[in-house]
Design brief:
- α8 runs antiparallel to α12 (210-230).
- The protein has 15 helices and no strands.
- It has helices at 2-8, 11-19, 25-40, 44-50, 52-73, 85-100, 105-111, 113-141, 146-158, 164-170, 186-202, 210-230, 239-250, 264-268, 271-292.
- The longest helix is centred in the middle third of the chain and has 29 residues, at 113-141.
- It has 293 residues and is mainly α.
Length: 293
């Protein structure tokens, strides 16, 4: 890998890229996309009207949930990241514009597909940097704790996904079937694989520099997420390999199982008979009321 980069004269570029600051441009993109996903969640708009405090807390979890969970795991205060006032104010400004901008103008602009694709790519730059930073932080605290490095890097990259059930409680919802451990999305899986790669690099078992790994993994993540967002896909580039691996090692059935989790209409189908019964009972009550009159 290093020889290829040397031939292409990209070694210096990889080093400069790995040292590039994330604040404010990349962080703003991260906050915008994260809070966009929050707005897509059922009931989030109603909560923003009914309880702005709960909505703001949910937005902060979407933006900083990975830092909070990683700090708890490493024995630090979960409020530690909130000392960075500029980040909190910036994320709060994005939350306000996404939910409360007049005529929904800001939301319409950032949700416009070409703009959203750029923001999604920038967000993946931050995700990769967070995975690398999480592994590096855990390496300093637990020098030979390779599993701890993987776990912390995984948590840093996964964001709010791992505590999504707690975030749902803040919005007054409870959907345990959406547990990210049970139904891992592509970013969560990629964060796990990325944490393993960065741990191998940190332990000097992967013959590649950190800057090169950051560049290559960022390009992979940004490309994959942009393509998936453009195609409105919820699948995973790893699904075929994972399907065969799990089938061979754990006896899992081949194909189809994961895709079923991404079809909400299948789960929603049984609700129609209940709805019909409610409508019939409501009609019966109205007829009885008319007879009584």
């Amino acid at each position: 890998m290093e020889n290829v980069l040397a031939v292409l004269n990209l070694g210096d570029f990889a080093h400069a890229f790995s040292k590039m600051g994330m604040f404010p441009v990349f962080d703003v993109a991260y906050y915008i996309v994260s809070i966009l996903y929050l707005k897509y969640e059922p009931g989030s708009v109603e909560v923003s009207r009914r309880s702005p405090v709960a909505s703001w807390l949910c937005a902060m979890l979407y933006c900083f949930g990975s830092y909070i969970l990683a700090d708890i795991m490493l024995g630090s205060s979960p409020l530690d990241y909130f000392q960075y006032n500029s980040h909190i104010l910036l994320a709060s400004a994005v939350w306000y514009l996404v939910f409360y901008c007049p005529l929904n103008l800001f939301y319409k602009c950032v949700a416009f597909l070409p703009v959203k694709l750029v923001l999604v790519a920038l967000k993946e730059v931050v995700r990769t940097r967070k995975i690398a930073a999480g592994v590096h932080h855990a390496h300093h605290a637990y020098h030979h704790g390779y599993f701890i490095m993987v776990i912390v890097g995984y948590v840093k990259g996964s964001g709010v996904a791992l505590i999504s059930n707690f975030e749902q409680l803040l919005r007054g919802m409870w959907r345990p079937e959406t547990n990210e451990i049970l139904n891992m999305s592509f970013p969560t899986k990629a964060s796990l694989y990325g944490a393993i790669l960065f741990t191998l690099q940190e332990a000097h078992w992967l013959p590649v520099s950190k800057s090169t790994l950051i560049l290559v993994f960022t390009l992979f993540m940004a490309t994959a997420k942009v393509v998936m967002t453009a195609r409105h896909s919820h699948g995973s580039p790893f699904s075929l390999v994972e399907s065969w691996t799990c089938h061979l090692l754990f006896g899992s059935p081949l194909g189809g199982g994961e895709e079923d989790n991404h079809h909400p209409h299948a789960a929603a189908a049984p609700s129609s008979p209940l709805k019909t019964k409610e409508e019939l009972s409501e009609g019966a009550r109205k007829r009885k009321a008319k007879k009584a009159e």
